[in-house]
Write a structure and sequence with these properties.
By secondary structure, the chain is α+β, with helices and mostly antiparallel strands. It has helices at residues 26-41, 124-137, 158-165; strands spanning 46-48, 58-61, 70-81, 84-88, 96-102, 105-111, 117-123, 152-154. It has 3 helices and 8 strands. The structure holds zinc ion (ZN).
């Protein structure tokens, strides 16, 4: 288990295009393993290789309802549908959140750790995370999708202090990091 160093804006690697992985080598497996450890350590919903200093097209996602992390090698968005506004944050842009435009549903193609290509349809938080992480691999950050210039704001840490005085409720939306809650997209389906 290894926790990798996070790359933070304005690190230029966050604006670079990652390269296609030709084959799932032991090094790629190791990278994936370390990225999963790092994502969990940072309480993130997802992590892309650029964020830990690698320009391989590799990303991992783990939403609260997943039993195991989703590994995406050479992921590609095949199709998107609809539009919605969601609140988002990024481990590489600490201290901020923003309101962004995202798709309602996405269809993605990627390779798994077994070297096989799979396709996936997603909505809600997973769709948001897929768009966010695949963007990273193309040098794009969520701040590029802001609804308006005013929709980026600093996180206030007041609630961290409040938490010490109150019972801690089981609320996943407290994890104010990488592509968090889709709370702004109120409508279902
Ligand atoms: Zn991010």
């Amino acid at each position: 288990m290894a926790i990798l160093d996070m790359r933070i804006l304005p690190d230029p690697i966050l604006r670079k295009q990652a390269k296609k992985v030709a084959k799932v080598t032991p090094q790629i497996k190791k990278l994936v393993e370390n990225m999963v450890d790092t994502m969990r350590d940072q309480h993130g919903v997802g992590l892309a290789a650029n964020q830990v200093g690698s320009l391989q097209k590799v990303a991992v996602i783990e939403t609260p309802d997943m039993e195991e992390p989703l590994v995406l090698i050479n992921p590609e968005v095949l199709k998107t549908d609809g539009e919605r506004q969601v609140e988002e944050g990024c481990l590489s842009v600490p201290g901020y959140r923003g309101l962004v435009n995202r798709s309602e549903t996405v269809r993605v193609k990627a390779m798994g750790l077994d070297g096989k290509i799979y396709r996936l349809n997603a909505d809600e938080l997973l769709a948001q995370a897929l768009e966010h992480e695949i963007d990273h691999l193309n040098g794009i950050l969520y701040i590029d999708h802001l609804v308006s210039h005013e929709s980026l704001y600093k996180i206030t840490y007041e609630h961290d202090y409040e938490d010490e005085d109150h019972e801690h409720d089981e609320d996943d939306s407290e994890d104010s990091v990488e592509s968090v809650t889709a709370e702004a997209s109120a409508s279902e389906d």
